[in-house]
Structure formats: C-alpha cells, structure tokens
C-alpha cells in the first residue's frame, strides 16, 4: 500500500491506495479519522496497474507527499487471467446467449477451474427446471443466496460497488440481479451517473438482458438523498457529490456512455426516463429533466443492441421522428413512448407525435405492442392517429394504447373504418373525450368482439355509453369518466393528469 498526505492552511488529509490484481482500494479522509474506502475493479491486472499509477501521479501533481514505509507489505497475488479456453467459451455465449447447453458447459468449466461462479451457473440453470421438487428448489435457492451474498459485488464488475448495499434490492430504486451466473438486470435512478458508466464499461454485463435508468416516481427528487448519502461512500474522491449530497445528472450525460459500450449486445429490454407505475397512473414530474432530449444519442445506443425486443422511452426525445423511422427498431415486440414534449415549449412544436412516420416504417413487422401517452397538454393529432391505424407495416400489432386525445367520437369512426379492430386483442383509448355517440359506433362494429379488453377510462361517457359497449360482449374498463360539457372545469382536466406535482 502507498500512503500520502496533503497539508495546507485549511486542509490536513490523507490518501492511500492498495493495488491487488485487477482491483485497487483507495482510502481517504481527514488525518486522524478512518476515512472512506472504495474498491475499483478493471478488466485485467495491467489496466488496474495503469490506473493505479495514473492516480498516484495525479495526487503528487496536486501536492500530496508520499509517506509510504520503506518496506511495503507484500501485495496479494493477482487473480490469474482467463485462459484461452475460458475466453472461447465466453465468446460463444455472447454469440449465442440463449443456449442453455453452452451455459452449462461454461459453468462446468468454471467449477473445474475452482471458480465459485461456476456453481452459481449450475444452481441457476437447475432452478430453471420448475418440475424439481420443492425441497430441491428451496435448497438451491438457499445456496444461490449464499453465493450471491459473498460474491455478487465482485461478479458485477465495476457496477458492483453501486449495486450491492443497503440501498439496493428488488423493492428499491437500485437493483442488480443474476441469471445463469451473469449480471442479468440493472435498475437505477439517474444518479449517480457513474453507475451507468460502470455498467457500460463492465465486461461482466455482457449477458445483461434488462436495463432500467428511471426517475422512480415513488420518490420526490429531494428524497433521493436517502440513497445518495449512502452511495456517497462508494464514490472515489474524484466522483464525490456536492456538499449537500444531492446530485442530478445533467441532460445529455446518461446515454453517451451506453452508446460507447461493446457489452450491450444481449440487451432485450431498455427502459429510459420516468417510471410509469405510479399509483395515480402514468405520470411524470416537471421538476427535473435528467434524461436529455437528443434522439441521436438514443439511436447510437440502439446500434449496439441488436437483440433489443422491448423499448420504453418515458421522456421527451428530439426529433422523435428519427427514432420512429429508424430501422434499428426492427427486432422490437414492444415499443412505448410516454411524456413526449415538455410543457414549456409544446406550443412551438407542430407535431410532437408524428405517428405517420411510425406507420411508414417497414422495419416494424415484429411489433406486437405499441403504447403512447403524451406529456402535459400535448395531444395526438387525428390524422396521425388515422395513419397509424391504417398502416400496412404493422402486421403483428395486437395491443394498442393511444392516450391524451381530443378527437373523441371522430376517433371512434376512424378506428372502425380502418379495419384494425379485426386483429387487435387489446385497445386502450383512455384519457380522451369520446362521448356516448362514439361508444355506440364502436359497439355497432362486429369486429369489436375480437378484442379481449377495451379500456375507455377517463373519457366523457355516461352509463348509457358504457352499457352499449358492454352489450357488445367485450370486457370493458371505464374508470373515472369526466364531463362532456366544454364549459365545465373538469372537461379538459385529463390533459393535466400526467403531472403529479
């Protein structure tokens, strides 16, 4: 371990660094205290040594004085580099990530090499067999828990220092989970952005299937400090937050690290922006905007995600038409775009939801679910809606959600005449102003019976309109209807429902 001190009129602090194989540990703080410690991992020992030397040089340049004892303690033996065979097995997994046999071979290899992660691979593969007796599964779960408790941080790579701690877990904003012995799921607030960077540069994330970078609507932004204060302890000295311990990423800083990552080729689900599971329904906060608004940055990420199947964009991206027209969406089964257009400038944008562009995208042949919920006071244009429901480029579309509309009964006419009801299984046209007249048009359409669920919540229906729809033999959801009187204060209230402030 190498030790250093820095002393001046208002400062008396120490900084120590200990190199061990692919990792080093930094300890720092005021002289006379225990300080804080952080561990940082790298892809190999050479990189760790290079970064170690770089930090030492930086400290010396800043005026730190080395106080290392003349005979340093012997360094811990470096962890051996992966063998050529292990690298070949991992390359095969990256190329064919869904093949259970390849994972089994890899797990057996690690076990024979004395690597405990091999046992995790075996245990989690065994748990995929739901026909196993309960006693066997309970024993496997217990062993899985023990292995992860001891090794999860190490097996997550650089992201482990953020994803393992009392602030993380299934019911908390920060969460990391494993499948088949690999990091499979990451969920994080947009703070600290160093976590997103850590995931992007960690080869341990090569099998990552689900990534969620979300502003969790369960928490007010100023409640983030309950997590940030504790996460502060794992940041390096150069990553420290401001004096109040509150940190919100600047717009445009979250996507670029992901765009530069070579480790997202197995990603299947990407969720980015505000969460959409608030008890009040789809809603976002106008207080913060940490997610940026450049569609080009998102497209740069998608270039590295050839297996992506579900894309949830819950924030305004500009220009969104470049996303809607992109061939990079060709593998999508689920596409969601919520909260497009910020309230502050919605009037200056002629077409915040250019669905006609989406309708013309011939790459969307696999898209089965499309969900749209504009932002505050932004609505979907009737002609754009018409282009969407008449599109010949969405042959697999079976589940459609279109919220925040003002075209009411005319929208019902367009739906019926388009013929899309012949193939839809679920239709959600909530958050609109359709009246009983529109409901009767839908109810009279013989194709309506093809639907499994029709959601017309937050429209302007009376009991008569709802009864007409139910009489068509379709399961109807019709919660929270509003007034049909344009002079009523509640007439357009639904257009503000996305803002929970």
Q: Please, could you describe this protein's structure?
A:
- This protein has 501 residues and is of the alpha/beta class.
- It has four domains: 65 residues, q64v53_bacfr protein fold; 63 residues, no CATH class; 160 residues, no CATH class; 160 residues, Alpha-Beta Horseshoe (Leucine-rich repeat, LRR (right-handed beta-alpha superhelix)).
- It is built from 16 helices and 16 strands.
- The strands form two sheets. Strands 6-7-8-9-10-11-12-13-14-15-16 form an eleven-stranded mixed β-sheet.
- β15, α16 and β16 form a beta-alpha-beta unit.
- The longest helix has 22 residues.
- About 2% of the residues have low confidence.
SSE blueprint:
Blueprint: E1 2-8, E2 11-20, E3 23-30, E4 36-41, H1 45-61, E5 65-66, H2 84-95, H3 100-112, H4 117-127, H5 134-155, H6 160-163, E6 175-179, E7 182-188, H7 193-200, E8 210-215, H8 225-231, H9 255-259, E9 269-274, H10 295-302, E10 310-314, H11 320-324, E11 334-338, H12 355-359, E12 369-373, H13 382-389, E13 399-402, H14 408-418, E14 426-428, H15 436-443, E15 453-455, H16 463-470, E16 475-477
Helix pairs in contact: 2-3, 3-4, 4-5, 13-14, 14-15, 15-16
Briefly summarize what is shown:
The chain is α/β, with parallel strands linked by helices and about 500 residues long. It contains 16 helices and 16 strands.
Strand order of the largest sheet: 6-7-8-9-10-11-12-13-14-15-16
Instruction: Work out the strand percent.
Output: 15-25%
What's the total number of strands? 16
What would the average pLDDT be, to the nearest integer?
87
Shape: globular
Residues in helix, %: 25-40%
Low-confidence stretches: 242-247, 343-348
> What is the alpha-carbon Rg in Å?
27 Å
Taking the sheet with the most strands, its summary is: 11 strands, mixed
Instruction: Provide the number of structural domains.
Output: 4
What class would the helix/strand composition place it in? Answer: alpha/beta
How many helix segments? 16
Ends distance: 51 Å
